[in-house]
């Protein structure tokens, strides 16, 4: 298996290879939903570590992407499963240049070893074998507004509602809790806000 997979190359059962975020982005891309183009550095690469050949392959993929800057995002196997939410546990880096790319990938990998991640995994009875991490590299988008959508109301657990939290600018401000977002509750049946 290749250490690098483009979104178009990822198949449905490959969560163990590309992680939850990588698989979700690949599915969106393959459904022709507008997501920034990108590729995934697989969990196999994580297990084998960074060597000159992998580094060269990553930089070659960056060149193929045709972006001046990219988002480098962690994608763990156990991420956002039915039983656990890993929001904010793993590292992501925005506006990464080619010169910063390899170091940013290594930092994403290292976030899987953090005390916070290991403590959370232990509290959720998730074994260390499930902490393998892939890394998503996507063309950076200079967004006017960003948001997060929940398929159920995360506060009340009401599955008949969708919750969207949105803010101006990059979503990183929202995810890091640095801004108070606009909050929208949508009824799934009537589509009323």
Structural class: alpha+beta
Low-confidence stretches: none
Q: Care to count the β-strands? A: 8
> Largest sheet at a glance?
5 strands, antiparallel
What does this entry show, briefly?
The protein has 193 residues and is of the alpha+beta class. It has helices spanning 15-30, 43-48, 52-65, 98-111, 115-123, 172-175, and strands at residues 4-6, 38-41, 70-76, 92-96, 133-139, 145-150, 161-168, 182-187.
Structural descriptors:
globular, 193 residues, alpha+beta, three-stranded antiparallel beta sheet, five-stranded antiparallel beta sheet
Description:
The chain contains 6 helices and 8 strands, in the order βαβααββααβββαβ. The protein is of the alpha+beta class. The longest helix is centred in the N-terminal third of the chain and has 16 residues, at 15-30.
Strand-helix topology:
Blueprint: E1 4-6, H1 15-30, E2 38-41, H2 43-48, H3 52-65, E3 70-76, E4 92-96, H4 98-111, H5 115-123, E5 133-139, E6 145-150, E7 161-168, H6 172-175, E8 182-187
Antiparallel strand pairs: 1-2, 2-5, 3-4, 3-5, 6-7, 7-8
């Amino acid at each position: 298996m290749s250490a690098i997979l483009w979104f178009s190359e990822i198949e449905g059962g490959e969560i163990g290879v590309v992680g939850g975020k990588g698989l979700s982005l690949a599915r969106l891309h393959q459904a022709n939903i507008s997501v920034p183009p990108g590729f995934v550095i697989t969990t196999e690469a994580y297990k084998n570590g960074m060597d000159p050949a992998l580094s060269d392959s990553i930089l070659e993929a960056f060149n193929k992407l045709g972006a001046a800057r990219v988002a480098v995002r962690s994608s763990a196997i156990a991420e956002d499963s039915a039983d656990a939410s890993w929001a904010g546990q793993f590292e992501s880096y925005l506006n990464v240049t080619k010169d910063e790319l390899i170091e940013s990938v290594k930092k994403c990998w290292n976030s899987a070893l953090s005390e916070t991640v290991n403590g959370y995994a232990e509290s959720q009875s998730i074994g260390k074998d499930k902490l393998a991490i892939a890394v998503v590299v996507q063309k950076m988008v200079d967004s006017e507004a960003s948001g997060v959508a929940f398929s159920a109301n995360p506060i009340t657990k009401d599955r008949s509602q969708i919750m969207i939290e949105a803010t101006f600018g990059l979503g990183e401000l929202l995810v890091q809790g640095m801004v108070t977002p606009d909050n929208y509750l949508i009824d799934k049946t009537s589509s009323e806000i």
